[in-house]
Task: inverse folding
């Protein structure tokens, strides 16, 4: 090995090469040259293929699912519970429907999950769902033939069910919080449901990952984090703001007050003077239905959602743009509202003026119009993932790195590494379900 400097008095740093010196000039070792050439060719080829794939015509979207079922002009008979990779719907007849990852419908439309019980609520937690019957019984939604596992408690008067990574939280009517782990089997004797000792009486709670947010009975806003598992422990709640009129929380990081003030969102407050639940949805983009029935939004989507092809890879959930500030968890450190909110402007979504209700997660949003149509936009889990140039380049780099560098422990290259694909983003609302009144 030798160090070859730049000639002509250049101030560039010397280049380290492996090879021999010929005619006073440094030559790169042929094997290293071959590796570098291959790297360049693969990256360029991947870039071209990715650009071609990303510029393909938009897929033809399926017609909305038509359901012969009466639906009123409010969300009292229909409830939508968005999650990180889809949503659950409780329909007017009490049946539970699923949409998104795991749905087997060939067109990616919502499909029936269970109609043997009469369902009242569904609750998203990191990596799964909890569902509650009208009689109060709570079930954990799990993969496999026995996809519904009952909790060991019955007839509980739950106000809210939520959870993060490997834990679940339940808020009871008396203001106490119960918690249990999700990696220790069904909640019960071997995985006890225990009270979370926060020394507060709570009005609302929400969790995402290790982060928790809640409103105490006196209207104050608090944040805390999961600290350990087995046993399940949490940090002490920290006051997030001095206000005392907070009434609701969502997504483990957002909150709203009775006067329409927002915390952790990309805007400081709603346009409307009051916060009426069902008329707004919080996330990296805040949506709001105005008094004239029009739909407006403010904020910016985060990085694209990616999911793995068969053969490996790790799925990543929809992130929040650094422009909105929420992705940095600034609000959870007591600095809400999110920085940069003043840079955004409200913009109208579509031309309709008959929006009735909206629901949202951090990346996907749903709305109901007066003609009994449910719409979806944002990260669209009903479309097939696409291969972008970034996906291609990342996969090419992983493949080259696996062949050049040995994996930890000297086991050689990783086999079967899957390519990450990007989930399409639906800019304008598209119809997902339509309810047709049953003819008498």
Result:
């Amino acid at each position: 090995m030798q160090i070859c400097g730049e000639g002509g008095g250049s101030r560039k740093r010397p280049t380290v090469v492996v090879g021999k010196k010929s005619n006073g000039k440094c030559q790169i070792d042929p094997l290293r040259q071959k590796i570098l050439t291959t790297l360049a060719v693969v990256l360029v080829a991947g870039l071209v293929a990715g650009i071609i794939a990303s510029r393909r015509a938009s897929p033809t979207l399926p017609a909305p699912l038509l359901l012969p079922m009466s639906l009123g002009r409010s969300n009292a008979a229909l409830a939508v519970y968005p999650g990180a990779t889809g949503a659950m719907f409780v329909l007017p007849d009490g049946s539970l429907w699923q949409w998104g990852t795991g749905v087997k419908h060939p067109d990616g439309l919502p499909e029936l999950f269970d109609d043997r019980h009469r369902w009242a609520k569904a609750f998203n937690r990191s990596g799964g769902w909890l569902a509650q019957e009208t009689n109060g019984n709570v079930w954990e939604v799990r993969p496999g033939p026995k996809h519904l596992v009952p909790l060991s408690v019955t007839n509980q008067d739950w106000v809210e069910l939520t959870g993060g990574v490997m834990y679940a939280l339940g808020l009871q009517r008396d203001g106490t919080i119960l918690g249990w782990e999700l990696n220790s089997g069904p909640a019960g004797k071997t995985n006890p449901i225990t009270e979370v000792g926060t020394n507060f009486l709570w009005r609302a709670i929400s969790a995402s990952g290790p982060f928790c947010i809640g409103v105490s009975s006196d209207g104050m806003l608090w944040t805390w984090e999961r600290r350990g598992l087995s046993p399940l422990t949490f940090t002490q709640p920290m006051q997030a703001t001095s206000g005392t009129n907070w009434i609701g929380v969502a997504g483990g990081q957002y909150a709203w007050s009775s006067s329409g003030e927002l915390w952790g969102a990309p805007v400081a407050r709603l346009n409307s003077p009051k916060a009426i639940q069902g008329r707004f949805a919080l996330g990296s983009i805040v949506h709001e239905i105005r008094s004239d029935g029009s739909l407006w939004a403010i904020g910016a989507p985060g990085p694209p959602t990616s999911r793995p092809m068969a053969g490996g890879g790790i799925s990543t959930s929809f992130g929040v743009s650094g422009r909105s500030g929420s992705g940095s968890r600034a609000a959870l450190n007591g600095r809400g509202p999110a920085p940069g909110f003043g840079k955004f402007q409200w913009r109208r979504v579509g031309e309709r003026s008959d929006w009735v209700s909206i629901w949202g997660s951090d990346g996907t949003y749903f709305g109901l119009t007066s003609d009994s149509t449910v719409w979806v936009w944002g990260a669209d889990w009903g479309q097939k993932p696409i291969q972008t140039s970034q996906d291609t380049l990342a996969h090419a780099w992983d493949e080259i790195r696996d062949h050049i560098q040995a994996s930890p422990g000297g086991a050689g290259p990783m086999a079967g590494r899957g390519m990450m694909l990007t989930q399409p983003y639906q800019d304008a609302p598209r119809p997902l379900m339509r309810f047709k009144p049953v003819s008498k």
About this structure: The CA atoms of residues 23 and 265 lie 65 Å apart. Residues 1-22, 310-339, 410-415 have pLDDT under 50 and may be disordered. Residues 157-252 form one domain. Helices lie at 30-54, 389-404.
